[in-house]
Amino acid sequence: MLIPGNRLHIVSSKEHWDELNKTSVDHLSSHAWSKQHFQPKHTFGYEWPDRRDEDGMPVVRAIRTMTGRFQELTPKYLRIMEEEIKEALEKGRREDGSSRLLLWHTINHFASRMNMLMMFGEERANDPEFVDRGLKYIDEVTLVSEAAKNFPAFIVPATSIIRRMIVGRNLNQRHILEAIASDIRKHRANDDPKDKMSSILHGLVRALPHASDSRISHDMNITFVSSTTATPIVILIPTPTSTLANPPARHPTPPRHLHPPAPPPRPPHRALPHPLPPQPRPQSAPPPRKLPRRIHAHALLPLNSHPPRPVEALRFPRRVRRPPR
User: Fold this and answer.
1) Burial annotation 284-309 (CB, 10 A radius, 16+ → b, else e)
2) Where does the record place Basic residues bias (predicted)?
3) Is 205 exposed, middle or buried (0-12, 13-18, 19+ CB in 10 A)?
4) Contact by Cβ (8 Å): 11, 237
5) Alpha helices in the chain (DSSP H)
């Protein structure tokens, strides 16, 4: 799969998955992967340069923190994926026992829950109303921004009417902002420095004790929108829906016209009729001639140039003082 400026390899068979498992850790670095895919782009003015200095260290520290806690978050991520896939299979179950699910909707749902787990904590990620309103809020923001982008510049001030038509009473955004404000007050009241930070919001409240609640809520709102609108990149192993409800069966062989054409055979290697004559070894260049220790400056100049003037000749003549009248 080719995307602008990058190439993604999607795992599509058991052989590919086994090949990834056998690869050394030096070739599969989670730090390098996260640095490649979580670059600070399109963050509404929150760009940090990707270098180790005063401005770039927050990016390095954030990546190190997430990669260090990845082993702790992995069981929670797997549980979220299992819950979402089971729920999607139950909703799309057919009469013959197989299930049909909307792949993009399912991926978007559990990827957004993973993002909420990192940002707001496990309680919010397991709240169905918060997750549902959060996804609707993201969809409304996307529709309004696309409408404003496609309209001419002189009509943009009048897009508030279209925004009201899309958003309505803006109940989804209000619910998200009220939940963020409630979590900020809870963290400020019950924060213990000895406790481990449970979310990005918790760490932001602890790191900025003098910041106002509205400022932290504004930053979290922008981060939530910009991070959730990014396309989730997930490694998938496609399996027929019938194998999810029935015992696994052997995959049918694809038609012959779908197989890629075999490459033409290489011609056999033929020896040369006569061996090549031995090539003479190149002679090494003579060493550079050493200059004498004492050498005049004009000896290094070309023949058609004049020797440099002495330093005394470049000085201005002394000004003679006249006796006062």
Assistant:
1) eeeeeeeeeeeeeeeeeeeeeeeeee
2) 316-325
3) buried
4) yes
5) 14-22, 30-37, 57-68, 70-91, 103-120, 122-125, 128-150, 159-167, 171-190, 200-207, 213-228, 242-245, 311-314
The one-letter amino acid code at 237 reads I
| Cβ pair 175, 133 in contact under 8 A | yes
Q: Roughly what angle, to the nearest 10 degrees, separates helices 70-91 and 103-120?
A: 140
Q: Tokens 């000004």, residue?
A: 319
In eight-state DSSP terms, residue 322 is P
Residue-wise pLDDT for 233-274, tens only, equals: 443 333 333 223 333 344 444 444 444 556 666 665 555 455
- Going by C-alpha positions, the residue among 79, 62, 192 that lies closest to residue 125 is 79
> Using one digit for the tens of pLDDT, what is the confidence trace for 9-59?
566 677 877 777 777 766 665 555 555 555 555 445 555 555 555 545 666
Q: Which amino acid is at 128?
A: P
pTM of the model: 0.54
Longest dimension (CA), the chain: 126
- HEC-encoded secondary structure of 267-303: CCCCCCCCCCCCCCCCCCCCCCCCCCCCCCHHHHCCC
Residue type, 39: Q
**Radius of gyration over every alpha carbon of the chain, rounded to an integer in angstroms:** 35
Cβ contact 64:52 at 8 Å: no
